[in-house]
Backbone:
């Protein structure tokens, strides 16, 4: 019988403290504090400032760790869409899921936007989110996209946070209307017009 590896108590405590700090950071952001101070994060996490700085070199490092957590949560929340569904059903399922995921990452996306231009770590996580969406699109709409890179680029752009933020925040659309706008755009891109089809 194999003995399970022992977990060093100090390492486990350190990991719990680190997770508590990231949890507190994301909780404050979720509550609308898009630029939480180290002091507020430490108080909510129930740790000292010294403990916070022993785990994170600066606030950018904490933002980067939070970005990793958000990406992990997004991956856990994602559900594959059967590629054999009729196109209208795939479009509906894709846009419904994108709306849900974008709402989930919304607070973190708003906070990241304030520091992303100055943070290589946050820029990297933005690109990872984009890569995830491109993978979803090429898997869900493989037959329709094929090797059309321009189509994939257009679909990717309308499925990302900046477009969703425009609908939800700049235009004050409710979730249902923003999702409908996305579905109409995706449908228009994936469904060839009659004139285009006849010209082939």
Residues:
């Amino acid at each position: 019988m194999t003995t399970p590896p022992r977990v060093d108590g100090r390492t486990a405590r350190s990991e719990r403290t680190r997770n508590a700090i990231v949890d507190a950071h994301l909780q404050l952001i979720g509550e609308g504090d898009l630029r939480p101070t180290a002091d507020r994060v430490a108080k909510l996490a129930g740790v000292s400032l010294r403990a916070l700085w022993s785990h994170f070199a600066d606030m950018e490092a904490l933002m980067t760790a939070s970005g990793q957590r958000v990406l992990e949560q997004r991956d856990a929340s994602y559900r594959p869409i059967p590629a054999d569904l009729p196109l209208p059903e795939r479009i509906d399922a894709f846009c419904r899921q994108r709306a849900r995921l974008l709402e989930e990452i919304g607070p973190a996306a708003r906070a990241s936007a304030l520091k992303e231009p100055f943070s290589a770590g946050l820029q990297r996580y933005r690109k990872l989110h984009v890569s995830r969406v491109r993978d979803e699109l090429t898997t869900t709409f493989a037959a329709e996209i094929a090797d059309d890179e321009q189509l994939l680029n257009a679909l990717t752009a309308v499925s990302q946070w900046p477009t969703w933020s425009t609908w939800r925040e700049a235009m004050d659309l409710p979730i249902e209307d923003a999702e409908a706008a996305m579905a109409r755009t995706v449908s228009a891109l994936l469904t060839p017009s009659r004139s285009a089809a006849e010209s082939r």
Q: What stands out?
A: Residues 193-200 have pLDDT under 50 and may be disordered. The domain at 1-56 is CATH 1.10.10 (Arc Repressor Mutant, subunit A).
